[in-house]
């Protein structure tokens, strides 16, 4: 009995050991370790060392150098791959082989011994060349390319993202990075920028976003972002107009904001914003008079909605608003029926039925591609409006 029990126990223990061995063999002894942050830092270091890179981009008007590795760019962007590795080669038409006459055939046969000697000499020369150092093919040599479409800070952030997979988005360069990502086919970065737009539009950033839109208005991503920024400005009109950074906007962008019917801002705040911008402009352009500069904005301000005491105490003493506009505003407040509405807001009468939008136009101060309101180019100049 004891022996039988012992035998059964021994069999059970053996089966348990064999089962454990099978289980150990079934489960592979593997472990996955990832160090993405370390890899990103190393790749960032690689792109920062010109001697380790094989392409240099001269970016923007200042031609600032930005270095990169061609293989990394080509692997991450098909646009860069075509730019760096698929140079177009001219195609030549094959010419038909000339027919040889009998005289040429005779001369060819008679010169064969001499040709054999020349071929032997060429073979010896070829063998000697093989022993010489091999030169790098042209595709492996360092390249230098000029990038004029984007600013240096924007392009540098793009190159950093391509090499490391990481980039810090900020309102000042957001629009440029988003358009660069779209231009070079980096869809994930473009979507990340579009998502960041929703949370980065604040009172403190709207002016920076609008200023950067000036450079990239020709790209399709710009128009949708500018429209969102303008809608935010409409909702927070008084706060935006009181910003110090409002004076840094281009003149035509200021006109675009002041001319919007949806702008929720009182008229005196609009006048103060126009005055603040005009003073800033005259500080840097001392040959311009303040009255002439602010005259570009007066048609977008409804002076008859400014209280009479504010008109007479704050606006009229400056001598910047024509006397006729002040008198029409006061007359309207006394008797609205006594004043022709066209004399109060001529710009709004012309814009009736037209919506404000973003488009390309000519800026009166020399910019070729700008933000503008639809149909604003047909309006008269400030010299003919306020005489």
UniProtKB/TrEMBL annotation:
Name recorded for this polypeptide: BTB domain-containing protein
Lineage of source species: Eukaryota, Metazoa, Ecdysozoa, Arthropoda, Hexapoda
Disordered: annotated span: 343-387
UniProt feature, compositional bias: Low complexity: 366-387
Record domain BTB: where: 53-171
Membrane-spanning parts: none
Gene3D superfamilies found in the cross-reference section: 1.25.40.420, Potassium Channel Kv1.1, Chain A
Organism field: Euphydryas editha
Pfam hit, one: BACK
């Amino acid at each position: 009995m004891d022996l039988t029990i012992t035998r059964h126990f021994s069999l059970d223990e053996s089966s348990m050991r064999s089962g454990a061995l099978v289980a150990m063999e079934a489960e592979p002894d593997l472990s996955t370790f990832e160090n993405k942050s370390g890899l990103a830092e190393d790749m960032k270091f690689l792109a920062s060392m010109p001697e380790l890179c094989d392409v240099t981009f001269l970016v923007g008007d200042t031609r600032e150098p930005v270095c990169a590795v061609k293989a990394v760019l080509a692997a991450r962007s098909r646009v860069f791959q075509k730019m760096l590795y698929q140079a177009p080669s001219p195609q030549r038409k094959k010419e038909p082989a000339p027919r040889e006459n009998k005289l040429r055939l005779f001369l060819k046969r008679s010169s064969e011994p001499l040709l054999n000697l020349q071929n032997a000499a060429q073979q010896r020369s070829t063998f000697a060349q093989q022993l010489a150092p091999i030169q790098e093919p042209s595709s492996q040599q360092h390249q230098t390319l000029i990038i004029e479409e984007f600013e240096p800070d924007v392009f540098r952030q793009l190159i950093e993202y391509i090499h490391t997979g990481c980039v810090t988005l900020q309102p000042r360069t957001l629009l440029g990075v988003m358009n660069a990502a779209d231009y070079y086919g980096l869809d994930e970065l473009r979507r990340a920028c579009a998502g960041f737009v929703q949370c980065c539009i604040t009172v403190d950033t709207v002016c920076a976003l609008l200023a950067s839109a000036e450079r990239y208005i020709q790209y399709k991503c710009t128009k949708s972002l500018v429209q969102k920024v303008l809608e935010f400005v409409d909702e927070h009109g008084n706060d935006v107009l009181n910003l110090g950074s409002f004076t840094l906007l281009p003149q035509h962008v200021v006109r675009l904001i002041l001319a919007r019917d949806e702008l929720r801002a009182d008229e005196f705040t609009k006048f103060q914003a126009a005055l603040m911008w005009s003073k800033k402009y005259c500080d840097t352009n001392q040959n311009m008079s303040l009255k002439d500069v602010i005259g570009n904005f007066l048609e977008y301000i409804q002076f008859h909605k400014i209280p009479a005491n504010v008109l007479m105490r704050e606006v009229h003493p400056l001598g910047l608003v024509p006397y006729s506009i002040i008198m029409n505003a006061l007359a309207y407040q006394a008797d609205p029926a006594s004043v022709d509405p066209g004399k109060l807001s001529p710009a709004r009468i012309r814009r009736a039925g037209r919506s404000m939008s973003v488009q390309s136009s000519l800026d009166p101060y020399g910019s070729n591609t700008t933000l503008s309101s639809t149909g604003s180019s047909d309006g008269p100049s400030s010299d003919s409006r306020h005489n």
